[in-house]
Amino acid sequence: MDIVVLLIEWLNVLVLIISTILFLYFYVKSVSPAQLEKKIGEIAYPKCKTYRIIAGTFEGITVVNYILYVFFPLPLSLPLILPWDYLLSFIISFVILIPSVYLMIIGIRDAGAETLEPKKEHTLYSGIYEKVRHPQAIGEVFIWFPIALWLNSPFLVLYSFVWFPIFYIMCWAEERDLIIRYGQSYLDYRERVGFLIPNRKKD
After folding, report:
1. What is the pTM (predicted TM-score) of this model?
2. I need a labelling partner for 44 at 20 to 30 A (CA). Which of 85, 104, 156, 157 fits?
């Protein structure tokens, strides 16, 4: 029985890691329609929508893995629960969650249908995108920490740091494609608007 539990513990973490990698892989493909169009034509745009749905599926699987980890933690030297009162974790989680969700909602609103479905005719975004170039990514990357805090797991808090380089790579990949799609207008936009932190206004 102990061997079965151990197998489940390692299998869950293995699926977590693989799903994290596949999420990154398919999301990067989903934000590269202009590059793909050079190879297969305009069908690249609906194909990238499919890639984004697949990426979202793998992201959902990682959430399930987070939850399962509470019941099947690895036999590591880490403590099973965080070393402070759960109420503190709950408070910290909402301090992180509220601005993160706000950024995501505003970003989704201002990006419109492009949030899920890349469209060739779509113009450059406005609204929050005139302050920072990747508001949705900024919001989403921090949401993993509230999940880990709610689940009261030191391992999951540490694992959540993995999402920072992942979301950075995603943003970088998206910008490569946006330069192809919009050319000089996007390069001018990059000069004007900060990547992940708003640019300071010049006098």
Report:
1. 0.90
2. 104
